[in-house]
Design brief:
Elements lengths: L1 H8 L1 E5 L1 E4 L2 E4 L4 H8 L4 E6 L5 E10 L2 E8 L2 E9 L1
Antiparallel strand pairs: 1-7, 2-3, 4-5, 5-6, 6-7
Length: about 80
Amino acid sequence: MVLLGLALSISALAFDTYRVGARLVRVGDGASRLMEVVGEPAHKEPLETRGGGYVGERWQYRLDGKTVTFTIRDGKIAAIDEVRD
């Protein structure tokens, strides 16, 4: 029962676009565009295959009381996920 309550208290959402002020980033934009709009991430995590091969990175930001994660593959935004704390 406690686990169910914890699972329901964390809200995770996935997006194709994300607004930062008046500016927008979207899946398919380059990592340089993300840096231009949002700045340096608070945390970067490499993504690897099971064999240890590099396939991309996860960039995490703290924005407006939320953790927003951008998955970067081939130098472009592949996914945008938000977790409300």
